[in-house]
Amino acid sequence: MTTDREFPAPPWRRERGKPRRQLNVDVIVDAAMRVMGAEGLDAVSMRRVAHELDTGPASLYAHVRDKRELHELMLDATMRDIPVPEPDPERWQQQLKQLGLDQARLMARNPGIARIAMETLIPTTPGILVAMDAMLGIVRSSGLPARLIPAACDGLALYVTAFAYEASLWSSAQDSEARKRLEEINVYLDSLPADRVPHLAAMREHFHDDEIDHFEFMLDVFIAGLAAQVKANAATSSAAPATAPGADSPGR
Length: 252
Fold this sequence. Notes:
mainly alpha
């Protein structure tokens, strides 16, 4: 029996394209991440992502409100890859440092994500909230007073994000361009009058000391400061006089 499949298609008939992949938030975010990786964050727009998915921008708006929400979803997808430890009061300093390292390295590997984090006022997506909760849990296990925990976490998150953002600026430039710019800066700094900037001149040779990881050093300093605060608070609490049960309160 002969079937239509044995006949060639006539030249006026349009060739059937591959079926489009069904759209959902994950598919859209994956496409946006690909665009960012290949062309940079500035290239990520609803129109460009729609083109990546071989569809029109209108079809994306059924799943994502606008470019700002798309950026936040990209940040969320990245943060979901960060391991979340169970808070351990005996190891809180090591856990906090590892969490900071993991976050910084992940954002540095995805240039543009740190910039999104800096520009997002209050992230509220699940992946970001889980990462925030992990940091809060670790710092809570340290014994730091509850009223100081939000400030500690905010400061650490800001430092980690700012470092990753700075690293992404260098990585987004071409290697030759970055090297040329760095050489120009070094030549200019070497030309500065030492009598006008004596400390800058004295420290020049240490600016690019490869034996010191600046990010990890400052992360250690930050966590050591928190540990000192925990210790000071414990000492203050133990030194405070206990109030005897039933004793009159001051002023009575």
